[in-house]
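Final paragraph of the annual report: two paired records, presented back to back.
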Amino acid sequence: MFSTEKDPTESAPLPLLRVRWLGTMEYREAWELQKSLAAKRLQDEIPDTLLLLEHPPTFTLGRNAKPSDILVDAETLSREGIEVVQSDRGGDVTYHGPGQLVGYPIVNLQRSPHSPNLHTYFRLLEETLICSLAHFGVEGNRFKGYTGVWVGMNTQPFAPEKIAAMGIRVSRWVTQHGFALNVSPNLSHFEMIIPCDIREYGVTSLQKVTSREIAVESVMPVVIEEFSRVFGMEVES
């Protein structure tokens, strides 16, 4: 006769992570999708979800951003095909565009295997990207006093550059927005803004740091692998 009692040594199954690759999607459309999925996640209608995508050229203004953070006029924006969107995420102004892998985790932090606090969540996002960069031979670092992931922290002279930005919104412990990893974007577009209100340091990309062509699609599976590992989740098959 078989016992139906659970073996106390048997580990609990990992929480599921649903991953969706959206291709290129307008910022406002992706924002509406996030809000819809966040409402479903709050009601446990869907598992934790990671949206991965690229945006057309867009400047997004976070809650702390000022119009003066955009350094070019409307005519230049129109000529470059850059849309400006006021967002409900935290932070200042940033750029999204082709060649940038954007990740929007829709995660219920109260259901997370980690402690449900924003500091831990930010550190886990950073760890995901730092470990992802290591797959390409790039040393990513945290920079005290700043969010995101940086490279060039150990160079002489000291010349840190930001390779990944982060900005989130959390409502009733469900996350929206997330991270933007510069794989091969048009870096000249960052010169049109004061990115993340940082004047003294520059912005770079994985392609620039490695001096080789790298496609967003080749980085995506690495980020999925590291996100699921760092957050302690199992990717839904």
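The closing record of the year follows.
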Amino acid sequence: MTLAGEGMSQIVRSLLELLQRRSYYSGDLLFSTEILRNVTDTFKRATYIPASDDVQKFFQIVSHMLDLENLEKWEDAHQVAPGAALLMRILEDFIHFIGEAQKPFQSFLTVTNNLMITIQREPVSAVSSDINFPMKGRRGMKDWARTAEDKLYIPKEVFTIPVEGKCQSSSPSKIHTFVDPGTESETTMYYVIGAILYRTLGIILPGPNPPAVINSKILTVTVRPEPQPSEPMVVVELSPLLNVTTLCASFKRHHLRRLCLLYEADALKRSHTLRKYKNVSRAVANTMPDD
């Protein structure tokens, strides 16, 4: 199975070279999305962890695909399939695959022209600290990431131990166990926590039905196994692209199903606001493909 994994790494390198030429069509975006899904699935089946350089190339591919110069291509592609939304799912699967191979308490950060990604692996029984994203003090930050006003805060209390009886590895949102001989027991369980700030995805995603406006960057959080918090304590602040105040609170209960609330600050004083923006939440959620 090592040969299969090495073959997928070579495909990643070749695909990045092709995308860097910037001479492709809308159908190529969907085809590239399918290639990335097959690459991720093959890596998982082969239990092959790609080299860090190939991991970076994978993220660079996604970033190139999400360049705004591809906007018209994505509009054409979305007549056939919700490719950008599928790309989000593939990216999250890849993040968890890479995160499962990290050492406990190890963190990973990458910033491209269109993505900022962090990955952490923490013991379920002892998440070390609150999650704050993005971390702007890191070296090598792109200007857009360093100046972004978008914020994610998850207190470590959110990461309560999952309920007994839900510890099956058959579902990607359930418990995964890892063994490091000499340091970890077979029953040790870990959270893989991934956060992604998309610079351009809000513009590229196909429009929801009924129509709604996505007036910010898109920030997603993915945690496996799924925590069971006693109360919703996750705070997400997204800076608006237009001249309104927008906040998006996202909590992932099932794979790729999100709750997104958008509102204007002044509108909160009106009694119909909650009902109105629940409808917007459903509209935004309708852009996501079913599992």
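The chain has eight helices and seven strands. This concludes the annual technical report; the extension proposal builds directly on these records.
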